Amino acid sequence: MSLLGIDVGTTGCKAIVFRADGQALGQGYREYPHVFPQRGWAEMSSDDVWAATKEAIAEAVSRAGARDPMRAVAVSSQGEGITPIGADGNALDNTILSFDNRTTAQADWWAQRFGKRKLFEITGQPLSPMYSINKIMWWRENRPELFARTWKFLCYEDFTSFRLCGEAAIDYSLAGRTMAFDVRAERWSDEILDAAGVERERLATTMPSGAVIGKVRDDVARELGLPRGVAVVTGGHDQPCGALGSGITQPRIAIDATGTVECITPAFDELNLSDAMLASNYACYHHVVPAMYVTLAFNFTGGSLLRWYRDTLGKQEREDAEAAGMDVYEMMIGLATSGPSPVMVLPHFALPATPWNDPFSRGAILGLTLATTKGDIIKALLDGVTFEMRLNLDYLARAGVVVENLRAIGGGAKSPTWLQLKADIFNRPLSSLSVSEAACLGAALLAGAAVGEYSSLDEAASQTIRITHTYEPNPAMVEQYAARYEIYRQLYPTLCNLLHAL
Question: Looking at the predicted structure, is the pLDDT value of residue 68 above 80?
Fold first, then answer.
């Protein structure tokens, strides 16, 4: 028997067919473009996403072949991005993405109407413009005719399940990222929705992770090469799915996920809605594992910073990689200066999240000279993203969330150079896994448990997750990076007023 895990990310969709023991049988991947209609706005087309998703699924299924009949599929999804869907099932507008900052006025309204503490107590989410409810309110206030015609506002887990089986269902973890979900009562918050002017019926049905929604429609199954009767199961927000797919089911261990977003996700077994969590903008919401919760320490500029370099400054690297038959990111990282870069980067190229939650911050490159090389700049990008996450580990510890070991997933987990850099800057062991695309695996494990392939998620994780290598901190490099980190800690506090003025 095989299981299909789909990860609908911000820049692309991955689909992987897994055997029940965790062996990947076939995979597919497709990217889709972003649209920037105005400065600070960020969108993408859900039609483009669905077309890419179908192609990724069909490729994965074709590569897997018919050796192991497929039984179930679940979706791991980017958070916060949301799309208005009409009564005919078609999108009425582009998706407004997480790092779109047009909704600062809505966030300010919540601060005045409810206050940050009350919102945190209800939803487990620190107030931010990025949450889905703000985007729905923006449509209501700025495009009332579109709002009136909208049947459902769907995130990408529920959008994909709707396309697959005709039912729109969202799990508790992704519902939490809307800032409209009551984290204690495990349902949409009437108080939040009433204040926002949004009817409950316009949102997807909430369900626990790992619950059967329905079956893939016959016409969709034929198009994608799936057998009839494949169960569609609730998955989750990509970070909790990645945590499950990395075996993060106990405290003091976290995933470090490097995709478009750089994110550290620890798990724990009690709600932590403390003042320290709120002060550093750390959410507390449902894990995809029953009776557990997660928080996120993240920055929207993760792997996307390397993509920015590739598309803006990396023409030669793209051409050289193509000629050599290499991955362009592998080539770029291979050019990076060894040791700490003489250049320093504040990686706030997209909306900075924890611990700052400052929609008006911007990126910065400092220390440039006429002798600065491309290798210095590439290394500074890697250093900057990693320093930002080290800062988050320090702030998490202040809030009582101690992380002693990390497991690496996502595209960045394929680079031994970057993993060793992280171990040295974090000063903590960092392990790679046999499946770096853990979000897809986590979704597949939820699908398998739902149809009885595993007796529990703990059993599913123990059968499928394997550590392949652990990167230990190098004491000499730890000392060098620690000195640079002390400078890095001063960058945002020193520059924030100038960045706001820009």
Answer: yes
